[in-house]
Amino acid sequence: MSVADLLRARIQALASAGRIGQFVSVGVAGASLETVIVALLTGGFVVEAVLAGRPLVAKAIGAEASITLMFLLNDNWTFADHGGAGPVALVRRWLKSHLVRSVGLAVAFATLYVLTAWTDITFVVAGGDIWPTVANGIGIGVGLSINYVAESLLTWRVHDMET
């Protein structure tokens, strides 16, 4: 098989509107869980805010819970027909997913940093500059795109079954 054929097969494997929709839905569930955990741990909702004043620790806990939830949902729904069977294969996919998500998160942070620290863009709405929020959304979108491609090709290897 030529390089062009391999590339075409991978692009076709990625171009599943249903899978993309499921992946985005799973991402919304993960982001929601992380947000709730951070709020509970830092906002005084759980035993006098266990981690009040330590939002990065709360975010790390929330991110881990979110990544694990998203992995389980993707493994059992989005990519249910992909990936090897058995506990060893499951743990391998979970570890790959963590690595992929770490890269996607780093890209999202870098995008936010570049769009806010390296530009003079302002986007004023009702007297407040919402550019950082818009830039964060762009970063999330870039990270999500990278995560989808990498999870599809590296974690669940969708192209193996669709070529």
Q: How many helices does DSSP assign?
A: 6
Would you tell me the structural class of the helices and strands? mainly alpha
> Which residue ranges are poorly predicted, with pLDDT under 50 across at least 5 consecutive positions?
none
Question: Any idea what the shape is?
Answer: globular
- Average pLDDT across residues? 84
Biggest sheet strand order reads 1-2
Q: What share of the residues lie within helices?
A: over 70%
Rg, Å, rounded: 18 Å
List the main descriptive attributes of the protein structure presented here:
6 helices; mainly alpha; globular; two-stranded antiparallel ribbon; 163 residues
Question: What is the structure about, briefly put?
Answer:
The protein contains six helices and two strands. It is mainly α.
Set out the fold topology.
Blueprint: H1 3-14, H2 17-42, H3 55-78, H4 87-117, E1 124-125, E2 128-129, H5 131-155, H6 158-162
Antiparallel strand pairs: 1-2
